[in-house]
C-alpha cells in the first residue's frame, strides 16, 4: 500500500496533477491524501472573527469533500482510496507535517496553482516546497502535461558523487511501477572520466543491473536547457529524475534557472529524490 499526498488549491492545474497521479499509480494499491492549505496571513488575522474563521474552515472542508467525491466518480479503481486533510499552515509546512503524520511515500504536486503566470514554469509555492523538502520523493507535474505511460525515465548526472543505495532504490521502485527503462545521461565537461567518476559510473551500472537501463554521454554545453531538451526529445523521455542534495546537478540547474527555461519546451514530470 502506497500513501500519496496531493496538495491542492482546487485549480485546474491541481486537478490535472491529481489525474496524472491516479493514472501513474493505476496498478498500485494507494491511499491518496488530498491536502489543502487554507492559511490566513497574520496581517489579516485581526480582521477575521472566530465565527468567520469557522465558516472559512467549513467551506474549505466542503471543497475537499466535493473533490474527493468527484475523484471517486471519475476514478473507478478498486486500488484507490481517498482521504482529505485541511491545514492552516503555509503550504510548505502543511506538506511537511502531513508527510510525517501520514507516513507518505510520494508527494505529487502541480508546478503551479490557480494564480501561476503563463511565463513561469514553477510557481512560488511549489518552489518553496521543493527547496525545503527532504522527507520523500516528489513528482512535480507541469501545468500543460498530459498523461503518458512512463516508458523511459531520464536520470541526468555529472557522476561526481557516489549515490546511496536508498536513492537508487527509489529510482528502481519508480521504474518497476510501470516497467520503465532508465536512461542515465552523463553531461561531461572533459572527454575522459576521472577515476572517481569512473568508479561512480561502475557503481551506478551495478545498482541498476536488475532494471532495464542505458547509459549515454552528452557534452555539457553553455546552453544546458537546449542540451537536456534535445536529449528528452531524442530519447522520447516521459519523466525526468533529479537527485536533490547540496551542489547537486539538479540544484545547479535550479539555481541557473534551467528548470524554469525547460518549462517552455517540455511537458513531462520531474521526479525529485532527496539524497
UniProtKB/TrEMBL annotation:
Q: Which Pfam families match?
A: Usp
Chain ranges of the UspA domain: 1-142
The protein's matches in SUPFAM superfamilies, at most eight in alphabetical order, are given as: Adenine nucleotide alpha hydrolases-like
Per the record, the domain of life is Bacteria
The record, for InterPro entries, names: Rossmann-like_a/b/a_fold (IPR014729), Universal_stress_UspA (IPR006015), UspA (IPR006016)
Family of this protein: Belongs to the universal stress protein A family.
Recorded hits in PANTHER family, A to Z, give: STRESS RESPONSE PROTEIN NHAX (PTHR46268), UNIVERSAL STRESS PROTEIN UP12 (PTHR46268:SF6)
Q: What's the name of the protein?
A: UspA domain-containing protein
Q: Which organism is it from?
A: Tenacibaculum holothuriorum
Amino acid at each position: 500500500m502506497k500513501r500519496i499526498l496531493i496538495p491542492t488549491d482546487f485549480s485546474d492545474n491541481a486537478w490535472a496533477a491529481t489525474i496524472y497521479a491516479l493514472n501513474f499509480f493505476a496498478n498500485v494499491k494507494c491511499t491518496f491524501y488530498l491536502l489543502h492549505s487554507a492559511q490566513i496571513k497574520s496581517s489579516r488575522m485581526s480582521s477575521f472573527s472566530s465565527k468567520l474563521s469557522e465558516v472559512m474552515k467549513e467551506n474549505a472542508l466542503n471543497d475537499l469533500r466535493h473533490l474527493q467525491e468527484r475523484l471517486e466518480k471519475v476514478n473507478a479503481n478498486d486500488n484507490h482510496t481517498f482521504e482529505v486533510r485541511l491545514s492552516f499552515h503555509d503550504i510548505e509546512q502543511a506538506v511537511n507535517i502531513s508527510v510525517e503524520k501520514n507516513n507518505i511515500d510520494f508527494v505529487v504536486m502541480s508546478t503551479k496553482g490557480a494564480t501561476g503566470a503563463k511565463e513561469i514554469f514553477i510557481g512560488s509555492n511549489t518552489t518553496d516546497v521543493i527547496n525545503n523538502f527532504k522527507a520523500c520523493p516528489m513528482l512535480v507535474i507541469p501545468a500543460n502535461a498530459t498523461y503518458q505511460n512512463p516508458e523511459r525515465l531520464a536520470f541526468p548526472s555529472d557522476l561526481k558523487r557516489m549515490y546511496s543505495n536508498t536513492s537508487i532504490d527509489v529510482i528502481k521502485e519508480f521504474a518497476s511501477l510501470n516497467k520503465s527503462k532508465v536512461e542515465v545521461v552523463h553531461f561531461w565537461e572533459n572527454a575522459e572520466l576521472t577515476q572517481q567518476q569512473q568508479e561512480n559510473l561502475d557503481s551506478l551500472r551495478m545498482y541498476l543491473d536488475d532494471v532495464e537501463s542505458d547509459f549515454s554521454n552528452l557534452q555539457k554545453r553553455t546552453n544546458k536547457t537546449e542540451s537536456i531538451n534535445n536529449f528528452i526529445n531524442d530519447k522520447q523521455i516521459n519523466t525526468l529524475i533529479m537527485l536533490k542534495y547540496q551542489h547537486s546537478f539538479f540544484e545547479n540547474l535550479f539555481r541557473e534557472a534551467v528548470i524554469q527555461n525547460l518549462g517552455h519546451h517540455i511537458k513531462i514530470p520531474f521526479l525529485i529524490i532527496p539524497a
